[in-house]
Predict the 3D structure of the following.
Amino acid sequence: MQSPHPPHPPLPARSGPPPGESDHTLAARLGGPEAGRHDAAALLLARHWRAVHDYAVVCLAAAGPSARLVTSAAFQQVLGRPVSGAAGGALRPRLLAAVRETVRTWAADEAACVVLPELRKPAGGRGLRAAAPRTPERRRLAERAFRSLPGASQCLLWHTEVEAESINIPAGLLGMDTAAAVIALGRARAEFRAGCVRAHRELATSAECLFCNRLLDGPIRRTGARLPEVRRHLTACSHCRHAAEQLSRFEDGLDVLIAETVLGWGARRYLDSRPGRAAREEVPAHGRLPAAPAGRPGGAPPGGRRTALAVGVGLASLGLLATVLTAMDRPGDDGVPHPSVTLGVPAGHR
């Protein structure tokens, strides 16, 4: 007798190469056997060195050896203190924030400024040192909301919005299927917006702010205009005015919102430096973005070719990273390595 419930048809074959190792997996391998550490370090460098170095140039207002030293120190700080689970957030934003704090710390050290005179530039280390370290009020809600997101959501938002990369890039960094990443990205945007609305409510300074909370977002989504009572309140309340501006970025300008929230210093200059943004501006008439370059997560050739290519990309920087990784037992009191650790300056000259 035939079953009333015939078996389901087989699932279609997954298109594209299988997901590779995630950033989290590679970072965990840095604490394992020596053979695995070298391969993991090379792959992480291939994925993140260029972007982290670009931001070091922004923070120093100078390229050259100093930017490479800051980049190495940022890798040391982040990879030397791995955070388990999603609490640590996405790796790229953590590395970039480490660059900023490294430059800020070194610029406050006169001995470091002697070794690296670029730290005294007003548009670089000196200016960063003088800038307020706290997130400005106009980005406080977005900061609270972004930090509350799982690391995977942070990664998807950062790489698609700030880096302007196609979805297969963060999918590769997360070790997940591209189709699943597309769905997760939609959820991440919704969670981020809801987090901003929730943060506005939690930090409300008056009953009127609480009343306006449910009115801030909905009307502008539907009509592009706000109710008269909301507009009157915004003229007098900076908390709600900043909330309205941050929420408006979800319609246009989410890249700026995330970059300014996470980086603060030099966020616009970092945005301008991203290769993916230039590629978007050069999209051909048929509207398709160029394919991800070989060796990148999601577009990497399989097996040994992928590893060989990643090692080749990171080889020039691998010596620097190896130096700082071996010095991880000697961080400064604040967790930021002193430049002498990377430069090899004797302790008596520090």
Remarks:
- The two ends are 86 Å apart (CA to CA).
- The longest helix spans residues 34-60.
- The mean pLDDT is 78.
- The chain is about 65% helix and 0% strand.
